[in-house]
Records
---
Amino acid sequence: MSTTSEMSLPPEWNDDERMNFMFSEFKENRDVNTTDWDSKMDFWTALIMRSCRRRGSVIVNLQDLNKTFQRKEKTPLGLSTVIQTMARCGKIQRESEFAASVDCGWVSWSVGMLLVKPLKWTFSTLLGSNRVPLEESFVVIELVKEKAAELLKVYRSSDFSSCSVVSFQELCTLSSNICADESTLCMALLQLQKDKQVIVSLHEGEKIVKFCQLGQDRVSPFGDIDIGIYQLQRSEKLLEERVQKLNLEADSILYFNIFLK
């Protein structure tokens, strides 16, 4: 997680009086002073978005935000309210809910044990708690849509564009410059799947991704032909790698024989 020293901060960050206000708790009733309440909310919302963009991430949680925005050994007291408000406005969504909104078997792979976390939130909500769990992860909707668009663009401008099916590992390499980590890639793929631009499946224990091709409105389901073509491409790649290895071994033997002479 980035720190404030690593990111561009607004001018008022150096104003102690202003920051004392920004670091204070929100009033329980916004109507007491809507101008102050909204200015504080806008300040933190913009700063969270800026921090995520700088890191290239689409996921936030309260624990990391508290560390990121420490100032003079103080932690902002109102970030829980900011998270709740952003969630109510649809700017962010719990990671597990975001994944669960995709109508296919991807959820079990992309989220895994994270599906346990919403139970804590649901339980605390039923008990009337307004606290956001420190480690609860949220997806920033605007940013994940941007990442999804970037990922699709990178795929279509790459050598892989001639292949409708790509392995997840190949996609990790391809997206290394736009996705900060595997989690960011997973969220971008989830967004593309929601948009019907990709579909994800498992083939012989390997995660594979099928992309919508140019001229199509949506990606078509995996079929036997897709799997057959993918297997053929994998076999060709393995054969090429084997040939390269044999050539290197042959060159080594040749040089060794020349050296002996």
---
Amino acid sequence: MKRKIILTQDGSSTIEIEEWKEHYHSTHGAIAESYHVFIKNGLSLFKGKKVHLLEIGLGTGLNAFITFLEHKGFEQTIHYEGIEAYPLTEKEIKNLNYTDKLNAPDKMSVFNMIHQSPWEQIIELSPTFTFKKRQQFFENISDKSKFDIIYFDAFSARVQPDLWTIPIFEKMYQALKNEGILVTYSSKGSARRAMIEVGFQVEKLPGAMGKREMLRAYKNEKHK
């Protein structure tokens, strides 16, 4: 499957899968989308907390890197686990421009460690941020009541509809602690209905630039 790096409208990189006409981030702005969906509407809800976070689709490492950059401002301690079945090549990683566009050239070593750290091992990116990279398919996730936040950043339902179904969202529900949240860029009706079916309370929020809406789902066992 051929991948190529392109620039999005805010000048930040993303990857395009040519045969699918699919992108790892919004072409309206990769960094802008990450901040809007995952930081503003996810991470910022847990200020001053110890947060266990799971990313579904580690991909370019952008969401993990921005979370690292922002967590101190939110006075958080983070344990971050990123799941990726098809990791980037070394050449692809080198051609991403996130450290420059985020004005964080001094954090290049952190960005590289996100990609180069050993699989299935917890590493310390800072005294307040630990990280674990997991290479597995999403359908094989079996975590139970472990995470406060899930960044659900899978490829779109247009190209991988099986990732936006009841069985997958049941795994997400089980992986979250009670009162945990899942945030995603998608607002697709079938995904929302699948979330509700497994017990989530779901709200629509304004989407990132170029998308009208996104979804945030809450696990509240009292209301299941």
